[in-house]
UniProtKB/TrEMBL annotation:
This is Cytochrome c oxidase polypeptide V. Pathway: Energy metabolism; oxidative phosphorylation. One of its GO terms (molecular function) is oxidoreductase activity. It is a single-pass membrane protein. CDD domains: Cyt_c_Oxidase_IV (cd00922). InterPro entries: Cyt_c_oxidase_su4_fam, Cyt_c_oxidase_su4_sf. Keywords: Membrane, Mitochondrion, Mitochondrion inner membrane, Oxidoreductase, Transit peptide, Transmembrane, Transmembrane helix. It comes from Amniculicola lignicola CBS 123094. GO terms for biological process: mitochondrial electron transport, cytochrome c to oxygen. Pfam families: COX4. It is found in: Mitochondrion inner membrane. GO terms for cellular component: mitochondrial inner membrane; respiratory chain complex IV.
Amino acid sequence: MLRSPITRAARSSASLLPSSATRQAVRVPRAAPIACLQQQIRQAHAISNPTLANIEKRWEDMPPQEQADLWMSLRDRMKTDWKEMTLQEKKAAYYIAFGPHGPRRPAPADEGRKVFFISAAIIGAAIFVFSLTRLAANPQRPKTMTKEWQEASEEFLRACMLVQSKPGPKGQFDDVEDPDDEE
């Protein structure tokens, strides 16, 4: 019989530890990892003023690793009481989170004009290529495009529609009487 790995694991642990009370007694609380202790220590001190000075102008030019380090230290500071944060830390955290940098940077002033002119140039080039191909094409129209051919094909279709007024193949409904014909 096929069993899932979860069922097998549950049964194997149940055979080793027969009751749930025994299982709970066997659990040993783990010590806090060293990284958590270091994070708590990092939260204790404020970030230096030269690090946060003029962050709005320096943020774009900072290397990505330095940006990440600064953001992580600010994030750790924000986990503590905000009353303990300096005004410069609050401003830097707000700028990094919501400031006009990266994808939130405002568009350049002439971007709309550039988009319009480039789009107009592409459309104009497409019209020019279309016109050029029409000029280079054979001026004589195919015989199926003449007025006489179109009228003849319409007459042919009308004749086919009159012969086959009922749907289906010819002769399918010849022996069946139509209830509307009784009147």
